[in-house]
Amino acid sequence: MSLITFISAKGSPGVSTAVTTLASLWPRPVVAADLDIVGGDIALRHRTGDGSPLQENRGLMSLGAALRSGDQSDLDDHLQATEDGLLVLTGVSTPGQTRGLGTAWPHIGAALRAHDADVLVDGGRFVPGSPLTPVMECSSALVFVARADLEGLAHLRTRLSALQESIRIGSMEGTRIGYTLVGDPGDVRGTTDTERLLASAGISASLLGVIGHDPRAVAGLQVDSPRRLRRSLYIRSLIDVAERIRTFAGVRVDSQEAVTR
Prior knowledge:
It is built from eleven helices and eight strands.
């Protein structure tokens, strides 16, 4: 199946919310994996079906420990179901736990890529030399998320340039590089200017759409399901972006899967 890694260009453009919401709208079996190296949010934002906190000792750390010791480990053994039935791989709580994963990172990437469901990774903020690099390298697609303002676009260009220098953007076999903006989906001129800005810097990355800046809907997701908020700008734009991302990553959706989700 497909492994798609989402990365923040700078600050907090909403990667964690976008990944879990995309997963809830995904028309195929899917896992949302929290691989933010400075500390993830999924375990903090979600509960189990009976309202209990997600288990702290089951997730990325337990998977990494098993893989680092050389054991064969089924990814399903480390997943948990949230209150709305979404399968998640919870992340680390501190950067120290990330360092503790050490040599397990390449094996973590391989385990995610080999899973029988699509895996959407919340990679947090991209930093050159990040421990997440092995996961990025075996992904079907990398998707940067940036705010559609001057600062956000400048950081997007900087991060894509750094990625190009560190892992030769566009040359990784089977991996595609794209980006989404958070702003006004109707701002055609803005998206065109962004494409020109990146092209002028010699960066080859595909625009995968604009996620609507809709703070009210994002706040509503804390207490309501994405399907109840389908008419909001945020969800409508995310549905459009999701379709583009699936096509970009080569995810095929048959009619039966589309109907049953």
